[in-house]
Amino acid sequence: MRQQNGSPGLDKEREKRWAELFDQFDLNKDGHIDISELRTGLAIVAAGDTNQDGVLDVEEFMQYLRDHEKQLKIMFRSLDKNNDGRIDAAEIQHSLQTIGVSVNLRDANRILKSMDKDGTMTIDWTEWRDYFLFNSVSNMEDVARCWKRSVMLDIGEQLTVPDEFTEEEKKSGYVWRQLMSGAVAGFVARSATAPLDRLKVFRQVHSYSFFDGNVLSGFQYMLKEGGVLSLWRGNGMNVLKIAPETAIKFTAYEHIKSMMHGHNQTRPLRIYERFLAGSLAGATAQTAIYPMEVLKTRLTLRNTGQYSGMADCAKQMLQKEGFSAFYKGYVPNLLAIVPYAGIDLAVYETLKFTWLSRNSGVVDPGVMVLVGCGAVSSTCGQLASYPLALIRTRMQAQTSLKGAPKVSMLTLLRNIVTQEGVTGLYRGISPNLLKVIPAVTVSYVVYEYTRILLGVDIEGRKGEKANKP
Predict the structure, then answer these.
(1) DSSP label at 193?
(2) What is the pTM of this model?
């Protein structure tokens, strides 16, 4: 018996069966089972465990598959509008638009290719069933979540176009749990890279004669002046503005998109329309929270004992410089949004589409590819907008008496080029680029764990279903 159980034929059959099971749980077909795919397996156990004993026996497993196949059959028939037994790209596009997810025909074809095994550019019942059999979906909103992956990364710079959400996600509270995950991730990522951010601001504001040298000498200067804790000066205001900025930007983005849609709310927005909506939403959020940006710069640059806290800094600015001090550098800040957001979005989309074109049949590039695309695109956006960001920071740092002449943006630009050369417009960019990779990594890890704690994927959807009749 032992010899039979250990025979090469049975071993190969067992390994084949295990490989098939692995492939079924590898939902995005990238050769790895990541944490979200493991959570899917846990969701299946929770859904099929009828006697609530925490495990799934064979009978419960078979019953779960029977019930799940019935649900999948109903969804398949609802998608198959012409009743030909196959789903094409146009039907995928139409089904997503009915639940508020705007996709163009090109993206719908990518979704279709990820499920099409026989190369017919359509999905039959078998392909549909096999694709979603081990995925806990019960309606088109769940299917839409499987077809898209969102990664909200905060590296402490301007955020670009907000994520797209379905109407069901907005009503269920899923959106705000997602946004909260992004805010927590931003809080941790900004705090982790705050010393590099402070060094960047120092180098942006001070001339070569006052503050020169490499990154190490910059840290030595700050440590000597104020000790270890001085490396985090200004970080409190930097993280305090995350929540209002995120909320205002998302709300403004939704309203602007709605106005662009006009009477046809199901029409997918073109990429330039998304860019325009994102830029306008960013400008709206920046206008609302800009005084916090100025305070953050002043607190970052302060010497030991200069201010007792945020309130004291704001009070001194108001008394000595007037209310207009809170909007110093506002114009270059707004002007920087367009090149940053435009290049960031364009590079991100180009990198993602290039990867997808080289990996035909895969609709989801996977988290690491998206994180890599985000890091590269953000870096390109920073390179394009950095001179404006530098001028903004210098204007924010200027202190003046009431009635004293103010240095304009163009005057400041001319002075920098004359005194420091064109390279002066990029002072402080090295610590800014150094923080991209650690910020993206920390942001993503914290974001994923926060989503688990808030139940964005499993508990959130279970709660929604439990409340349904």
Answers:
(1) T
(2) 0.66
